[in-house]
Amino acid sequence: MRTYSFFIHHAGSSTPTLEFELAGDEVSLRSLAEHALSESPNRLAVEIREEDQLVFSLDRNGATWPGQRVATPGLA
């Protein structure tokens, strides 16, 4: 399992909420990100980072933006 930082952006706030999550693969990580967004209608997007590297971003419409990190086995 690896630790990821979720920066959750909200409507009406310029400061994202920070949450930490554990995941062992990309499917689990995306599922956790989708769940984080679904917890409130005011949540607009989430940035998922491992250490200082952006893994991907996800918005409420399901659009995903990949990060610029190098792919690692099990987490492409």
Radius of gyration: 12 Å
C-alpha end-to-end distance: 15 Å
Biggest pleated sheet: 5 strands, antiparallel
Q: What is the global morphology? A: globular
Q: Runs with pLDDT <50, length 5+?
A: none
Strand order of the largest sheet: 2-1-3-4-5
Helix content: 10-25%
Overall pLDDT confidence: 89
Order of helices and strands: EEHEEE
The number of distinct structural domains comes to 1
Strand % is 35-45%
Main attributes?
single chain, 76 residues, alpha+beta, five-stranded antiparallel β-sheet, 1 helix
Explain what you see.
By secondary structure, this protein is α+β, with helices and mostly antiparallel strands. It has one domain. Helix content is 17%, strand content 45%. The chain contains 1 helix and 5 strands, in the order E-E-H-E-E-E. The protein has one helix at residues 26-38, and strands spanning 2-10, 17-23, 43-50, 53-59, 64-66. It has a 5-stranded antiparallel sheet, covered by helices on one side. Strand 4 and strand 5 (64-66) form a beta hairpin. The longest helix is centred in the middle third of the chain and has 13 residues, at 26-38. The radius of gyration is 12 Å and the shape is globular.
